[in-house]
From TrEMBL:
Principal EC category: transferase
Protein name: 1-acylglycerol-3-phosphate O-acyltransferase
One GO BP: lipid homeostasis
GO cellular component terms, A-Z: cytoplasm
Catalysis performed (reactions): a 1-acyl-sn-glycero-3-phosphate + an acyl-CoA = a 1,2-diacyl-sn-glycero-3-phosphate + CoA
Gene3D superfamilies for this protein: alpha/beta hydrolase
Keyword Lipoprotein in annotation: no
InterPro entries per the UniProt record, alphabetical: AB_hydrolase_1, AB_hydrolase_fold
Keyword Metal-binding: no
Organism for this UniProt entry: Phaseolus angularis (Azuki bean)
Pfam families (UniProt xref): Abhydrolase_1
Protein keywords: Acyltransferase, Cytoplasm, Lipid biosynthesis, Lipid metabolism, Phospholipid biosynthesis, Phospholipid metabolism, Transferase
Length: 386
């Protein structure tokens, strides 16, 4: 069961959310503002689409996992956007990373929708999806929050086979989902994926030494206290939008490693990012349970590499701060096809920095769905294998 959000009905399906009443009045956002900002951002996309609030219930039947627990027993919703596609096109489901939401893929929807049925998802507790109280107390519970809620969304959407793409933290969730439900995933694409390194890695020694300093001790305490960037944005109230504007202008403008945003894109993305960050804290509180300070996974994907059952393509920007060498190490243990593609003139947000090369990488990763004799297909010019 889902609720379609129509052009003349912006945000109306979200007005039943009780949590919006308790957001501090001086924070200039609301649940309606998130949907409206998303629609403004997607105005640059030429492909038709449908926004949906997909009802995932109040928890998996018989489950004791905490992802659905809250003061309210109202149903939870996963927000997703489905783009018009050609008949019989393979389905590509896209999952965003930490401190992001599905609109971050706005530069990619038109091109990808030419070959795929594209569905972009806001994970539970992010974007325009429901934001239940986050009550998880362990890594296992936190993983279940995202994996089980996504599985309920899949059931509600009646999807059986799809290509799953996840970025950064979304790559971690996508990989964990594919490990638990491989029968539904035709191919896995992990873009700048987090979660392969652990504190036992040699490269963590520098973080260990830093943590021993007073600055490191303070930052580690903030991390373990679940102090998130979003809390800073909320705490600044009416000054929050300006902080977000400075970030987007710097990251995707003056300090961009690739194709900078146009003025219109920058304005629309800033507006969208602010509203998604300033909304009620929920999924963002997962961080300390999934990663230790320094972004080292508490349950690294590397430990599960030998259990991989889905063919996988890793995509990294040349300037990505996520290390592709973790994927190289995982590949040594995988028993399924695996390739690692690096994209030039791109950092962690490779799909924004160099969208053209990113699209080429995705199409190459999925070549067997389009080309009969795909084994002889060569890697597109400019991309390199790692």
């Amino acid at each position: 069961m889902s609720e379609t959000i129509r052009e003349n009905d912006v945000g109306s399906t979200l007005k039943t959310s009780r949590s919006s009443r308790f957001w501090p009045r001086w924070i200039p956002t609301s649940v309606d503002d998130i949907i409206a900002a998303e629609k403004r951002l997607l105005s640059v996309v030429k492909t038709g689409y449908v926004q949906e609030h997909v009802n995932i219930g109040s928890g998996p039947p018989g489950s004791k996992v905490r992802w659905f627990r809250s003061a309210s027993s109202e149903p939870r919703f996963i927000h997703s956007v489905t783009f018009d596609s050609k008949p019989d096109a393979p389905t590509l489901v896209m999952i965003h990373g930490y401190a992001a939401s599905q609109g971050f893929f706005f530069r990619n929807f038109d091109v990808l929708a030419y070959r795929f049925r594209v569905i972009a998802v806001d994970q539970l507790g992010w974007g325009a999806s429901s934001r239940p109280d986050f009550t998880c107390k362990s890594t296992e519970e936190t993983e279940a929050w995202f994996i089980d809620s996504f599985e309920e969304w899949r059931k509600a959407k009646n999807l059986s086979n799809f290509i799953l793409l996840g970025h950064s933290f979304g790559g971690y969730v996508a990989a964990k989902y594919a490990l638990k439900h491989p029968e539904h995933v035709q191919h896995l694409i992990l873009v700048g994926s987090a979660g392969f390194s652990s504190e036992s890695d040699a490269k963590s020694e520098r973080i260990t030494r830093f943590r021993a300093t007073w600055k490191g001790a303070v930052l580690n305490h903030l991390w373990e206290s679940n102090f998130t960037p979003q809390k800073l944005v909320r705490g600044l109230g009416p000054w929050g939008p300006n902080i977000v504007r400075k970030y987007t202008s710097a990251r995707f403008g003056t300090h961009s490693t690739g194709e900078i945003l146009t003025e219109e894109e920058s304005t629309l993305l800033t507006d969208y990012v602010y509203h998604t960050l300033a909304a009620k804290a929920s999924g963002e509180l997962c961080l300390k349970y999934i990663f230790s300070f320094g972004a080292f996974a508490r349950m690294p994907l590397l430990l599960s590499a030998s259990e991989w059952k889905v063919s996988t393509t890793f995509i990294y920007g040349f300037e990505d701060w996520m290390n592709y060498q973790g994927a190289q190490e995982a590949r040594k243990h995988m028993k399924v096809p695996c390739e690692i593609i690096r994209v030039p003139r791109a950092g962690h947000f490779v799909f924004i920095d160099n969208p053209t090369a990113f699209h080429s990488a995705v199409f190459y990763a999925c070549r067997r769905f389009f080309i009969p004799d795909s084994d002889n297909e060569s890697l597109p010019k400019g991309l390199t294998f790692a």
